[in-house]
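Q: What would this complex look like in 3D?
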Amino acid sequence: MRLTGWGFRYPSRHAWAARDVDLRVDPGERVLLTGPSGAGKSTLLHALAGLLGPDEGEQTGEITVDGRAPAEARARTGVVFQDPDAQLVMTRAGDDVAFGLENAGVRPERIWPAVESVLAEVGFPYGRDRATAALSGGQKQRLVLAGALAPRPGLLLLDEPTAQLDPDGAVLVREAVARATGARDTTLLVVDHDAEAWLPLVDRVVELRPEGGAVEHGPGWRPAPLRLPVRTPRPAGAVLLRAEAAGYTHRGAEQPALAATDVAVPAGRTLAVTGPNGTGKSTLALLLAGLRPPTTGRIAAAPALTAGLRRPDRPPHRWRADELVRRIGTVFQHPEHQFLTGRVRDELALGPLRSGAGDDAAHRRAEELMERLGLAALAEANPFTLSGGQQRRLSVATALATDPAVLVLDEPTFGQDRDTWGELVALLAEQQRDGRALVLVTHDAAVVRALADDELALQPTPVPA
Amino acid sequence: MTLPLSLGPVRPVPLSAINPVAQLGAIAVVLPVLLVSGDLLTPLVVLAAEVCLLPAAGLTTPRTVLARTWPLLLGAAGVAWVNVLFGDAGWASGVALAVRVLALALPGVLLVASTDPVRLADALTLHWRVPTRFAFGTLAALRLVPLLAAEWQTIRLARRARGVEPGRNPVAQGRLFAGTAFALLVAAVRRGTRLAAAMDARGFDSGIARTNARGSVLRRRDAAYLAGAVAVCAAALALSVATGTWEPVFS
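A: Here is my prediction, written as structure tokens for the whole assembly.
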């Protein structure tokens, strides 16, 4: 595969998504394509997969796979994207792997042996009849990988295949990739900003630069270390919020989503909630945030937090929304879920307006936050069009706009590159210095190291035999 | 509350041995008969035959039957009630109408309870030449439905976290509902686009003649099932004509 002076621009954008890229990859090579968000990594991968037709935007330079245009070579290319749920087509594991073979017109009697062998290759631990809906994220992604490998592609493209998985799931997928490409009959191109994890699996590292061009890193290259903020540990302040044997069971479910949990959230400290998927980390965040009522136990707010409430005796989930946002702020895993307006400026003013601030005061608060969080240049932009890192900063800023004493964040560093990671962690450290209590639900061990004073590691509930 | 429509693989039940297109064929046989018969006896005989098939579709306990048919029962009761209230023919016609609604819809329940969606898509594309793009595209889209249900919950909670809550004001409730629905639509379109790209990347509908790994065979029992549907309809009509109760709706 070969690119010379390649560039691409989406029709609605002014800036080039990628430009001046020269890259040559020989058959059997394993290449990691890295670089900060917005450098055009995914665009390049889509182009190689033959998914960027002339309708999608403007192209310059030359791009070939196997000496042909990527769209013509599509049958020789397998792709794995981020979200396993947006890639599985069938309801059973084996049927899904067979899907690509059927599309290629492979004779039915040759499909099932091929499916069996590729499932074994990626280390899929279940049979062909396993329901895809019952799989973990990591196993789903293994299945997607098997589906991409089944037609025996000459080129395998992986677009941040572990970005939506927990660390265990990511390991499952990387193991499967290592096994499946060990024989070197497939050329591999991985796009990921988590370079460190992929280094043992690749021969070359190429970094796309946001200003254009690509830099080849020599052997022995390591990504720059994460920038950790300097923190001065503070003594725990007064406890603001407390979970007392709080648990949650979904209606009709046999197993609780969260087993009875005790935890205290004191002012000026950061509590990290960790543990494997399915232990109820996000559920605990929703309970502490006053968004869901616990089905057992209770969430108790201290007088410091309930002062000024019309009914201070009520638990947080019974507070009115405008009373809630001035006391407990929540940042969801996907920022788009939270955006309600068409401009960054309005988005930041919304919380203060809702909780009774005047028009001037609300917009002053918005200005101040934009200034502090480096969003001032984007004041008029639509929140949905921002990059992942900018969206994340904006969602934290919207929660801060109403000056809550407690900030609950679900996977705040999810999908962030190293630069935005550093910015975000610094921003959160600042909140803690201001005396806010932080609750972080996270899989990211680095963020726990960087910020947490206390860690609550949730354990899987033993399944009764 | 269980949704009456299942989207995952269906555990095989005796009726699963009948090809989905044969079941659809049986529906096509029953449908016109029920549509034209305005009396009580004809739909009652058909309904009785359908009820006999419920155990074969794995609906053996009142609980499982109810779980699959509650919206249907509710609908039939509603139709009957409206007819009694506003119609001029009174109870008898209300009940006849309800029985017709049940007899019309129960074959659909049997089909859904006994048929794996994938097998249905296989049968439709192989026997009735339904375009694969439509059949498998729909299949893939159905998989997203439970994900969207979870997303709806999250968006609702995220709005409360932004201080947006309708309280008891119905207008505000309506606006919040519309806003949430719009956010969900955006999320659905985004997911759908990604799914379409992934399917394209796997060579779906690329102009090559698609094969089918599972196949779909029509056997003698499928013909027998269809013949059974014809026989039941004929018997129902014969019985109601013989007893003089048959009453075509268009007369």
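A: To summarize the key features: Chain A has a mean pLDDT of 88. Chain A touches chain B through 67 residues (CB under 8 Å).
Q: Very helpful, thank you.
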